[in-house]
Write a structure and sequence with these properties.
Elements: E1 14-20, E2 23-28, E3 39-40, E4 50-51, E5 55-61, E6 64-69, E7 76-77, E8 82-84, E9 97-98, E10 102-106, E11 112-116
Parallel strand pairs: 3-4, 7-9
Antiparallel strand pairs: 1-2, 5-6, 8-11, 10-11
Protein name: CBM1 domain-containing protein
GO cellular component, one term: extracellular region
Keywords: Signal
Length: 117
């Protein structure tokens, strides 16, 4: 695009985008990788996006949800899941324990995590 008094570069992967009468920015063009993702991988933020197979979207706090491995048993926590402490408003009365192949390791008073034995 051409604007009076403005100069923009002509690189094929960039475009000159007018923001207002006084500002134009030279920005990368959107490509196919920038399109919305239909599902996200383990440990990525989910929210409105589905998690990849074998994972579920866990509400960590009021502002953040994360894809975490789904435990095979409803009464067990997945490997790497929080299993104790007060961080992230963790509910210690949920009745869930780590898998038999994991142990609940206390990093501090605020956070414990299921880790492989």
């Amino acid at each position: 695009m051409t604007w009076p008094f403005g100069v923009c570069c002509k690189a094929p992967n960039f475009s000159c985008n007018k923001k207002n009468d006084y500002l134009s920015l030279y920005e990368p063009k959107k490509n196919e990788m920038d399109q919305e993702v239909s599902e996200v991988d383990v440990w990525q933020q989910c929210g409105d996006t589905a998690c990849a197979a074998g994972n579920s979207c866990v509400n960590v706090n009021d502002w953040y949800s994360q894809c975490q491995p789904t435990s095979p048993n409803a009464n067990q926590l997945a490997t790497w899941a929080q299993c104790g402490g007060t961080a992230n408003n963790y509910n210690t009365n949920n009745g869930k324990t780590c898998r038999d192949t994991d142990k609940c390791f206390a990093y501090n008073l605020y956070y414990s995590q299921c880790i492989p034995k």
